[in-house]
Write a structure and sequence with these properties.
This protein is mainly α and about 210 residues long. It has one domain: RNA polymerase sigma factor, region 2, helix turn helix motif (Rna Polymerase Sigma Factor, Chain: A), CATH 1.10.1740.10. It is built from 10 helices and no strands. It is globular, with a radius of gyration of 17 Å. The N and C termini lie close together (about 10 Å). About 25% of the residues are buried.
Length: about 210
């Protein structure tokens, strides 16, 4: 299988286990406009920040869970992410990249976690109870077979990703699961777009060896 085919396979597996944004382009544009208003209000109004929290909590939790494979750890890091975002909101310059800014804070939390655990992810079985608590796309009326297949797909891919070095895990998650653009990932990581593309390519090559 060549790298292009493998990239497509990873994207297909990712989209089968990741919540999709079904808003139209118009609705997304309205959200961005409304979000800018919310951000301005949230600088001095905790209730407005609570609305931003509601919008992004599941996405950040999912991202951190997929990088730790431990729900308790993910919830703790998610709480720290939003706490630090609220404390630092006065420093944020609105350039339409609030989502990337949040992911940058979450990624910094991950880096500190990796330093404390020497970059290791717990190799544990993911229980159905944990899996059900994470927002995953499923059929409207999933059968037991559907749920089992989704859990198997999730576990297989993420156990493979967990064997990658942290820098590769992060770009795979941001690109294929969170569906951030290369520009957004560059903002998250504080790197150039060309460097991000190179990291993604190398990450896919390394990931392929684990399948």
């Amino acid at each position: 299988m060549n790298n292009t085919d493998f990239r497509g396979q990873v994207h297909e597996m990712a989209t089968s286990t990741t919540p999709r944004d079904r808003r139209t382009n118009t609705e997304q544009g309205e959200l961005i406009s409304d979000e800018s208003v919310l951000i301005d209000r949230a600088r001095t109004c905790p209730e407005a920040f609570g609305q931003l929290f509601d919008i992004y909590y599941e996405r950040i939790l999912n991202y951190l869970f997929r990088n730790t494979l431990d729900l308790d750890t993910a919830e703790e890091l998610t709480s720290s992410t939003f706490f630090n975002a609220f404390r630092s909101l006065h420093k944020y310059t609105d350039r339409g990249l609030f989502r990337a800014w949040l992911y940058r804070i979450a990624t910094n939390e991950l880096r500190m976690h990796y330093r404390a655990t020497r970059g290791q992810i717990k190799q544990v079985s993911i229980s159905n109870a944990q899996f059900e608590r994470i927002c995953i796309t499923r059929p409207a009326s999933p059968t037991a077979e559907d749920s089992a297949q989704a859990l198997e797909t999730f576990s297989k891919l993420h156990q493979a990703i967990s064997r990658l070095p942290a820098r590769y895990r992060t770009v795979i998650e941001l690109r294929y699961f969170e569906e951030l653009s290369y520009n957004e990932i560059a903002e998250v990581l504080g790197k150039r777009v060309g460097t991000v593309k190179s990291l993604v390519h190398r990450a896919l090559v390394r990931l392929k060896t684990h399948f």
